[in-house]
Design brief:
Elements lengths: L2 H6 L20 H11 L6 E5 L6 H14 L4 E5 L18 E5 L8 H16 L3 E6 L11 H6 L5 E3 L5 H14 L6 H10 L4 H18 L5 H11 L1
Parallel strand pairs: 1-4, 1-5, 2-3, 3-4
Helix pairs in contact: 2-3, 6-8, 8-9
């Protein structure tokens, strides 16, 4: 894992460092532009992302942290969907330039977590830091029990991430493969798109498996190799 991610103290292991450049914006270009500006130190101090699984919320939060570190800032990614975390995890994070908190729907309704999120929001705001949050639903659709936290979640811009279309997913697959040094023929891309879930998360997971098999066998992807990667994924 690179120095950049070591500086983030991520409580999980990432197989590949996500970047903003690798995120195909599609219908989400406004959100990506806002996230990029804020990650680099400009833009809005608070952003809220929401959308269905596979729209890239986690990717964008992690990539924003990497972009912030690359710009000489300090950043921290907090995945609240990870088991075993405690509200004290948010203590003192205001000393950082950017904090990105994912899956807040996992802790809303829990009094101690809501108090900790509210307190962090206030500390970050007082110091002029940047705070990103993401959930599976809009902030006013999440059952937040603490009224003050509910109001804070509505302070900044909110972006509903939209899924990519089939052609955009195919382009994402091709471009991501090229970054890994893999050649996917048009026939192979069509095979994948017709035989595998067509959402970015699933496609990127499959591509990582294809990359691993291709590296192990020292050959470029083929339909038989991709079919084996699909079987492993299932």
């Amino acid at each position: 894992m690179s120095t950049a991610f070591q500086q983030l103290h991520l409580p999980l292991e990432l197989g590949r460092e996500p970047s903003l450049a690798e995120y195909l914006p599609g219908p989400n270009s406004e959100a990506v532009a806002a996230i990029t500006a804020s990650a680099e130190g400009a833009g809005e101090p608070f952003l809220f992302l929401f959308g269905s699984p596979g729209t890239g919320k986690t990717h964008l939060l992690q990539a924003a942290c990497l972009a912030a570190v690359s710009a000489g800032r300090q950043a921290h990614f907090v995945p609240l969907g990870t088991r075993g975390l405690a509200p004290s995890l948010l203590d003192d994070l205001e000393r950082l330039d950017l904090v990105a908190i994912d899956d807040i729907q996992e802790v809303v309704g829990e009094a101690e977590w809501e108090k900790a999120l509210f307190a962090l929001f206030n500390r970050m705001r007082e110091l002029g830091r940047h705070l990103f949050m993401a959930a599976d639903a809009a902030p006013d659709a999440i059952p937040v029990a603490l009224p003050d936290l509910a109001s804070r979640l509505l302070w900044g811009p909110r972006y509903c991430l939209q899924p990519l279309g089939e052609e955009e997913c195919a382009r994402l697959l091709t471009q991501s493969a090229e970054r890994r040094g893999l050649r996917l023929s048009p026939d192979l891309v069509r095979f994948i798109m017709h035989h595998y879930p067509r959402d970015p998360g699933s496609l990127m997971d499959l591509l990582a498996r294809v990359d691993s098999l291709s590296l192990r066998e020292q050959r470029q992807p083929s339909i038989p190799l991709v079919r084996r990667a699909m079987q492993e994924a299932l």
